[in-house]
Design a protein that fits this description.
- Chains A, B: It is a peripheral membrane protein.
- The structure is a homodimer of 459-residue chains.
- Chain A has 459 residues and is of the alpha/beta class.
- Chain A is 27% helix and 23% strand.
- In chain A, the strands form seven sheets. An eight-stranded mixed beta sheet of chain A has the order 1-8-7-6-3-2-9-20.
- In chain A, helix 11 links the parallel strand 11 and strand 12.
- In chain A, helix 4 runs parallel beside helix 14.
- Chain A is elongated and about 75 Å long.
- At the A-B interface, helix 2, strand 1, strand 6, helix 9 and helix 10 of A face helix 2, strand 1, strand 6, helix 9 and helix 10 of B.
């Protein structure tokens, strides 16, 4: 018997109160409490001796179990489209929501609220909250055993003392790896400790908090000019779409909010964007020139440089230049996550999980990989697709349909999909790309392949 | 010259770009960067040798300076009503917003958003953002020197490595202490480490995060029943309005959101409210009975007990009973803040700063105290008023008018208010009290004094 059910017997309302306080009747309360005063009582049913519990293989009375690792663009779209009459869905992810990453930069300065860019997994696929065999587990996958069709997981407790990390296993019929990628630091010391990435909601929250804190601290009486300028120097490293969009948002924030609300320090706050090569290198030349012009016009300092070292309050460029900062945002691109690196699966160029044209890991049964963590194997003759939301999202959509088809054809169980016609392979068609540069201006690059080339500027 | 202004010379837009990328012209960029490659350059104007800078006494060309310590109900109402033509307002507080405390409990479970209960100081008194002599300083007051009319302060950096703590002094013409009170722990070990108070927005955020985390953790496969019940056991210590309202909100959350979204664990989650005496002891007897009935009806376990010790995952009552918990909220009332204790001013019964009928500290010039940190001196023959928002708010309003009157009569400067007629002393009239108990039900106690006694129940 759980200690808890003995804590207090709730009397029915009718029997309990007639113009007197129940609490006065303390003997009533302590009688029921006494059930669990003795520690030995609690140990009548001790917890199982192993810490490695889990969900075992599905039986023939259950639906086949699809395990999805990750809930970014790829995993979320997959879960949204999967037919939950055919599969139980189990999602394992260290966060319980999908982030609409293209709008994350706007939340750092209050243009958007955080909850506007985050959608709970349980709302993307309601079966996860309600169906008895479907679950969301707030955990990291620590290993994949493809022979036994099992994933090993460990809970994420984020430094809270609420529970020790808990390990468990989940047997799968189908496994979809959609773990995404990790921010690259290129092994530069101090980046993880002192810079903030811009990939999750908590990163945006941290940026917002630090920006406001620095604005307030810089206003303290007697702060030396140097220190004031340092605190209000926002440095962005990496001139891809994320870095450029964040710089644009910051300069909008400075021109509007700071001038209105922090008038005392408005002349001290500045934004510097450091990039080793070209900003927005994937965009057309003329769009890049336009973006450069716009950023400079809105007061962003563009610096070409390579960061060598990051200290708590300054960074050092390759040529020895020291750049003091108050806020440092790092957005230099992404690379494979540690789990992806550690898996002994065939890899695509760039170290991603190698997949075939049907997004399968061809050497394994029932294993698929989509999104930034996956790339076409060299043998397919296809190039590795860029780490973009539109690639991930369309792979998720394609794979959901493929798995629904497999399920309908009776191939949902582990090792049972042989011989089922998979239909057309996945084909990616690039629809173009966009980036905002602040001041309500954006770039739209609609080039498709290398032949036709169109672009627009919205003003 | 600040290093920062040398970072990059922004060319005018016209001269800079004509169809070419500025970034390609790296020599231009590095010329301007080279100004600060040498550390020695930065030290041409070293910061002042002392770390104790600040705002000196006001001159006759400036407005008199009113310093307000704190921005709760008392300080915020004062700042809102003060005439900024008569005074420059300087607010010193470790948080940059006022919290609408009666609605804080509702934010813990998502009934209200956090920003709905927080109002920035700069919006309460816009002069603080815009007037050259008015400021908000994110800092703690560390000492008050009433002889020199100076407050000593230190910045709050909240563990962020953005800046070392900075000390400064502010000279005042009028000083209003509105520091509020601190949550009482009665010296019980482990409360500060493991329990969450419910007095600030970040407390509500922590409660919300931990509640969701525990809901998700308890759903992990293989978690023992005991552990599941512990994680989902929400314990509230203290049966005053805060504890009761939070318990009510929690039980609403369980009955609605948990049953919808966390169906797997709905039978495990429970709320226990521990109180040493009566719940809602300041309310009328019949209202208390009604509240008790309602709470029990909504599934809240009421326990009479005294907490002796708090461990990371369980608390121990005086009789040795151990109560495992997943979430522990502490709301047992308030006591004087450390600074209030340390000030060598005459105190009221209960250790608050002693004030007279005009809310002055009578032994000092130009010193006032309002809200939870103040209490009438025994010599006034008046009782110390309860630590309620309505007391603080009305004291703030009264004092703003009194100080406006003094300012208009030419007594705004330090040591210049002698002989000015202060008018009527402050009179507090209790307007009654309210508390919600969940399920859209609330208590309203409209008794005034001890004679007439009316009460209402909303259903």
């Amino acid at each position: 018997m759980s200690w808890f059910r003995n804590l207090i017997q709730i009397p029915t309302v009718k029997s309990s109160i007639r113009g007197r306080s129940l609490l006065k009747n303390s003997s009533f309360l302590f009688t029921s409490l006494s059930h669990f005063t003795n520690d030995a009582n609690q140990l009548k049913n001790p917890p199982p001796p192993t810490q490695y519990a889990g969900l075992g293989p599905t039986s023939s009375t259950q639906k086949p179990r699809m395990v999805v690792l990750g809930c970014g663009w790829a995993g979320s779209r997959l879960m949204k489209e999967i037919d939950t009459k055919l599969y139980d869905v189990v999602c394992v992810s260290p966060r319980n929501h999908m982030v609409f990453t293209p709008l994350l930069a706007s939340t750092c300065v209050g243009t958007l609220e955080f909850r506007s860019v985050a959608e709970p997994v349980g709302r993307i696929q309601p079966a996860i909250s309600t169906e008895p065999g479907s679950y969301f587990f707030l955990a990291n996958c620590t290993d994949v055993d493809t022979d036994k069709h099992v994933v090993h997981c460990q809970t994420v407790t984020d430094g809270v003392d609420t529970m020790d990390p808990w390990k468990f296993k989940i047997s799968y019929d189908k496994l979809v790896i959609a773990l995404g990628a990790e921010a690259s630091t290129f092994g530069i010391q101090g980046v993880k400790e002192h810079a903030i990435f811009l990939r999750e909601v908590q990163h945006a929250q941290e940026i917002r908090r630090k920006l406001l804190l620095n604005l307030m601290l810089s206003d303290m009486p007697g702060i030396p000019e140097e220190e004031k300028s340092r605190l209000l120097h926002c440095v962005v490293v990496g001139g891809g779409p994320t870095g450029v969009e964040f710089s644009g948002e910051l300069s909008d924030f400075i021109m509007k909010d700071v001038h209105q609300r922090y008038a005392h320090v408005e002349n001290y706050i500045h934004v510097t964007l450091i990039e080793a090569n070209e900003i927005l290198s994937s965009f057309d030349d003329r769009l890049r020139h336009y973006a450069t012009k716009q950023l400079i016009k809105s007061g962003v300092h563009l610096v070409r440089g390579v960061v060598k070292d990051v200290k708590p309050q300054k960074l050092i460029l390759n040529d020895g230049t020291e750049v003091p900062y108050g806020l440092l945002v790092w957005s230099t691109g992404v690379g494979p996550a540690p789990l992806v690196k550690s898996l002994t699966l065939p890899k695509s160029p760039g170290g991603r999980i190698g997949i075939d044209e049907w997004l399968r890991v061809p050497s394994e049964q029932d294993l698929f990989a989509i999104g930034d963590c996956s790339g076409f194997l060299e043998g397919t003759g296809r190039p590795v697709l860029p780490a973009l939301a539109q690639v991930a999202e369309r792979q998720g959509k394609y794979l959901a349909r493929l798995l629904n088809k497999i399920g309908e054809a009776g191939g949902g169980r582990a090792n049972s999909a042989g011989g089922i016609d998979l239909g057309q392979p996945f084909v990616y068609r690039h629809l173009g790309q966009m980036a905002t540069v602040g001041s309500y201006k954006a770039l739209v690059d609609l080039r498709q392949g290398k032949v036709s080339s169109t672009f627009l500027l919205y003003q």
